[in-house]
Amino acid sequence: MPVINLTEPLTVVLCLAAIIAAIFLGHEIKRAIIPAIALILCVGLLVVHTIQLFAFGEAYADYTVILSTSMLYDFGFVLITYLAYLWIDDIEAKHRNKKSIDNSLDWFWSKI
Fold first, then answer.
1. Distance between CA 26 and CA 33 in Å, rounded?
2. For residue range 76-100, what is the model confidence (pLDDT) as tens digits?
3. Sequence-separated (6 or more) residues with CB below 8 Å from residue 44
């Protein structure tokens, strides 16, 4: 299995640029599905790195530090895309005059 190395700065910048582009596109068209797709991809990448680290431990012994660091970046990307999904979902609900079940980000904005 190939390893997606997120310890290289160029790879991190490219992943972050793709996430920011997905968030911007979702904000512009007021659809929460775009950051949801980015969230699913980030979670999938986290699952792949976790499987590579724990299931194939002996085969990937040289990559332990790389996979551990990549998992940390994956967690950060999941956090960013999850908060962006909640934000854009709220924007979409207001734009389409849908009743939102709850204000998912009120707990976040009240602390700031």
1. 7
2. 999 999 999 988 888 888 888 886 6
3. none
